[in-house]
Amino acid sequence: MNSDKLSERLTAVASFVESGAVLADIGSDHAYLPCYLIRTGIISKAIAGEVVKGPFESAKKNVKKEGLENNIIVRLGNGLQAVEENDGVDTITIAGMGGPLIASILQEGNAKLGKVKRIITQPNIHSSSIREWAVQNGWTIIEEEILKEDGKIYEIIVLERGKAEYDELEMKFGPYLLEDKSPIFVEKWERELAEWKRILDSLEKAGDTDEIQRRKEQLRKKIELAGRVLTN
């Protein structure tokens, strides 16, 4: 992967960035995504934020190699601390992290979101954390996508400002993904369901502490929800 040819996952994330957006790519790694978006003419300005020194240096090196130093500012900062008010950022991308971490980055950087119109997230796991954050903070889901690459399944959740309420199933499985129920969606939740059943079976053979009972109840609830989704 490079800035000429992104992974399928990042290409999907890029497809949700609107023309002319001012982007902040948080956890930018090599800055492939902002470089690609500028080289293809979709945007002309971006911030590439990194909290880890190694990827930060890689991003700087790649931006320089691409000759895009006038278009991309690479900053070392924790989450949205990499964004400054005069950047004029209106679009945030956060890809390749767990849902709870993405939600915590958004929560801790909430004060930086004043001028932001769109947030594009690609959680690797626990995407419901992002939906919960959205509902609690005045954002609504406008699009979702699920895709498979190299044997791994990824979700993309796109947020814009607005009030929304989602029921238990929509929060867990995604309102748009649930409506579509693509073969990849079904595959993901069949995998999860099999794993939950396996863990529950092993716990049934374990001791009977309060913690084990609590864990079993959680698993039974997940199994019941997934069963409803996959059989309807």
Automatic annotation (TrEMBL):
Alphabetized Gene3D superfamilies for the sequence: 1.10.287.1890, Vaccinia Virus protein VP39
This protein's name: tRNA (Adenine(22)-N(1))-methyltransferase TrmK
Source species of the chain: Sporosarcina highlanderae
